[in-house]
Design goal:
- There is one protein chain.
- Helix content is 50%, strand content 7%.
- The chain is mainly alpha-helical.
- The chain has a three-stranded mixed β-sheet, covered by helices on one side.
- Helix 1 (2-27) packs parallel to helix 3.
Length: 208
């Protein structure tokens, strides 16, 4: 029993290190990270996430606190949740441009099917657009890590996800570059046409 406990502690430490590296890579170290043994959330946040009545979660992004919290509960996948919550951070910080946002919104139905496979039981009628995108990307991320087949995504979205995956996989703590917007324009080769100004105003509220 003792050995098992030590093994679990070591596993948790390794997971925390990798998940923190992933989050720090995509956020350029600009978000606080907290790991907890279990995570509960406010009912309103779960309702926006398509899980009315749910009380526990694998991760959450607290916008006002600029904090990503990841649960180490073994029924969740911390790495997928790190990818999921990092997506929320990207949207909050206006990384995606208007053309990119329109593409994601236009493909809501396709992304929704992916989201349902990542999180069976979600209600797409009540789930907001950003949450659908986060679940879809988390599923894509996990399947790429496990070398599983990926199908059913529009080629432009697949290319964009591919680039973001490669970016995550670098696992560097900090990024160097000309600046925030240029570093994180992950769709620039996936979309045709000119780029325009920063994305629409970020909304308030925590997400899970």
């Amino acid at each position: 029993e003792r050995a098992s406990s030590i093994a679990e502690i070591a596993q948790d430490a390794d997971v925390q290190k990798k998940a923190a590296a992933l989050i720090n890579t995509v956020t350029n170290g600009r978000v606080k990270i907290n790991f907890v043994t279990e995570l509960t959330g406010p009912p309103a946040a779960f309702a926006r996430s398509g899980f009315a009545g749910k009380i526990d979660a694998g991760g959450a992004f607290y916008r006002l606190e600029n904090l990503i919290r990841i649960s180490l509960d073994r029924k969740f996948d911390p790495m997928s949740n790190a990818a999921h919550e990092s997506w929320h951070w990207l949207k909050e910080n206006r990384v995606f441009e208007p053309a990119e946002i329109k593409l994601l919104e236009r493909e809501r139905e396709t992304l929704g099917r992916w989201a349902q496979q990542e999180a069976p039981g979600i209600n797409l009628d009540t789930m907001d657009q950003e949450e659908i995108e986060a679940y879809a990307f988390a599923r894509y991320y996990r399947r790429r890590v496990m070398d599983q087949e990926i199908s059913g995504l529009l080629p432009a979205i697949r290319r964009a996800f591919d680039r973001l995956f490669q970016f995550f996989e670098q696992f560097t703590n900090y990024l160097e570059g000309r600046g925030f917007a240029s570093v994180y324009s992950v769709f620039d080769q996936a979309l045709a046409g000119a780029k325009s100004q920063a994305a629409a105003q970020a909304r308030a509220g925590d997400t899970v």
